[in-house]
Amino acid sequence: xxxxxxxxxxxxxxxxxxxxxxxxxxxxxxxxxxxxxxxxxxxxxxxxxxxxxxxxxxxxxxxxxxxxxxxxxxxxxxxxxxxxxxxxxxxxxxxxxxxxxxxxxxxxxxxxxxxxxxxxxxxxxxxxxxxxxxxxxxxxxxxxxxxxxxxxxxxxxxxxxxxxxxxxxxxxxxxxxxxxxxxxxxxxxxxxxxxxxxxxxxxxxxxxxxxxxxxxxxxxxxxxxxxxxxxxxxxx
Length: 236
Ligand SMILES: Nc1ccn([C@@H]2O[C@H](COP(=O)(O)OP(=O)(O)OP(=O)(O)O)[C@@H](O)[C@H]2O)c(=O)n1
Ligand SMILES: C[C@](O)(CO)[C@H](O)COP(=O)(O)O
Known about the structure:
By secondary structure, this protein is an alpha/beta fold. The protein has one domain: Spore Coat Polysaccharide Biosynthesis Protein SpsA, Chain A (Alpha-Beta Complex), CATH 3.90.550. 29% of the residues lie in helices and 23% in strands. It is built from 6 helices and 11 strands. The strands form 3 sheets. The protein has a 7-stranded mixed β-sheet, sandwiched between helices. A two-stranded antiparallel ribbon has the order 2-3. A hairpin with a 7-residue loop joins strand 8 and strand 9. Helix 4 crosses helix 5. The longest helix has 14 residues, at 82-95. The chain is globular, with a radius of gyration of 18 Å. Bound molecules: cytidine-5'-triphosphate and ligand LQXTBERG. Residues 82, 108, 166-168, 192-193, 216, 218 line the site of ligand LQXTBERG. Belongs to the IspD/TarI cytidylyltransferase family. IspD subfamily.
């Protein structure tokens, strides 16, 4: 049987850095909840067998009706960290029939600038790859290291050559990713992305060019940037 493609959207964070009065994925941007844009991009990709949204067990904001008629499933199995939410989401996908050989595209709910074209470019680049990989952007700015005291004085300038910023989606075989996260957990690591777990297993994920518009909404000023990007996208 051919491998299928699943999407997993970790959506159980609190957005503590965002300054929003609710988890940032539910904040309204350009007239829609941030999560709406994320789901819409995946809904527009019929090549995906299913999109699973992982929310917190005590989430009081998520309302599936507001996202109708988009295709997705929801599980209240979010964990204390992003890694735990992804692990629980992978378990849920397997309970509903996904297999080790199927691919999963893990994408932050908080990256609403993702587009169907970017999702397809990742799938096209990686579908024949032995490991999988991630969307990412080469670092564009000059990098400064602060002194050991962690203040605001520059200790030195770091070479940026060969450095990329990790984005999502991150695409791996479900079996390999579950094994990688289990290994990371056994070794006491709580990692910030899927690629780190795959690396910990000893593999080298590929980098696929992402886009600035696919930035992660993290800080208060990011909502205005998302609004500008998403308003422009809506008018195209
Ligand atoms: N326990 C967690 C923590 C994060 N996430 C999700 O992982 C993505 C990226 O995480 P991040 O931006 O760090 O989100 P938050 O944890 O919500 O933000 P903060 O770190 O500022 O609290 C988000 O879509 C977030 O909802 C999750 O599903 N479960
Ligand atoms: C997965 C991720 O979005 C890649 O950049 C990121 O690692 C998760 O967010 P955090 O801000 O590092 O917690």
